[in-house]
């Protein structure tokens, strides 16, 4: 092997210094400039001594050479001998190259700095901010809800880290969310799975972290990798809320994230809501109202004045808030027995329009005993449900539905999906029949005898991209609505969609409930990012065991057509072992955004409920 020469070592050292960036290049340019000025000054004093006229010492010659190097045009005003003019011309020519290179280096260096800032690679110095890791359509829902939640807070910050261009993320958020109020959104470009990129988010000072399930193949693996990166980092660990697409990966995600992580199972939550909405019209609207920060929100309170009173008495304790349950050391209980005593270590779970509205009433409300109706609960009977289309969560939906219906109920699956009706062994109450059907075809739908069913569920077909799947769902809904109008049939319709922007189009079909699964999960993630203690409350609401939300005929509670206070409705529900949280006006059931549903009305508010109106209660099945 040949020996390395001095020239090779010198060139290697020079290459290394040149590769250090703009500062190193400017340094070499400065060395060349000094050399040029010294050479020019030396030649001037040797070839043209005493020139230009009036120059007395070497320092002045160096200054003149420097001015010619920095301002090449200065040679035009020079006068002197041929030697002097030749040297100054050479100096100006060399200076022209040096200045050009300097301008180019500065321009390139500034461009690199601007590009770095544009890519969002500087560290965030905020504190008490909410961090969102990853990117999906849910980010718009989360940001919009957090903006509403922080409307009264000054200096609120939401920081987003994703593998997208910083400016593109900021522009997309402004386009979808609109006015951000007092909240600032800071975006950074990077991989949430990389510890170096996570360091940009100042996680040690963050209030909470939201991990989104990305819109790519095997999204749960990506979420689990982010949770591993969060768990391995040093410093304080803020609470983490993460979205998963499949409950099968929950154990691995919980192990990766540790005890500070709360997992939201997207498929499980959406499946439960679809099933509940198919059985109770308006359920999706009620849940959306409880999940967003616009209307009734859920709060936890520890009022000392209620310690020792029963839950039944606590139902009337708030004038502008509705008690719905207790959070005890042993867990959350919604709609507990009326004689349950509130202990000192309990928290009362209430629905209120704002935190400031959760105040105890001055006295007991007036109850109109003559308006209260006492009726028994009708026994459950076998039902017929039609399921149109098929996707990955259909099996889960059917199994949850099997836990609700009475024995002898029938489920008809109509779809042209190759997996339709598979893996359904072990059902107890449902008999499942499967038919091949193009659900967008009017004649195919009419052949199903839709009028024989009480409930129709329209799923989004996962063989198509979300936009096209929503288009097909809209076509099916239009066909069903026209069939209802033409044939005079009545059955509840709940549909699943992906894009919130399609809700307005779907409202034309007058579907009873429209479940936008991505929006629901985004709302839930935003709620838990603000208060992770609500996780048990929402888990209880979406569970098939215990008390759930039901809209029930108003005539079962109070005399219809009679002017009563909502406190009278609450009292009537209490005597039935239920908790009333609102009502639904049937005449406004097709009017967005609340579709006739009123949650948490003032206890003294006079209302007149009609025969077709409903009282919304928390009750056992």
From TrEMBL:
Q: Which UniProt keywords apply?
A: Ion channel, Ion transport, Lipoprotein, Membrane, Transmembrane, Transmembrane helix, Transport
The entry's localization annotation reads:
Endomembrane system
Membrane topology label: Multi-pass membrane protein
> Domain RCK C-terminal spans what residues?
283-366
Domain of life, per UniProt, equals Bacteria
Record Pfam families: Castor_Poll_mid
The RCK N-terminal domain covers 127-263
Q: For this UniProt entry, which segments traverse the membrane?
A: 21-48, 82-106
Lyase: present as a keyword of the record? no
Main localization is: membrane
Q: Which PANTHER family match?
A: ION CHANNEL POLLUX-RELATED
Protein family according to the UniProt entry: Belongs to the castor/pollux (TC 1.A.1.23) family.
Query: Could you tell me what this protein is called?
Result: Lipoprotein
What is the protein's species of origin?
A: Nonomuraea monospora
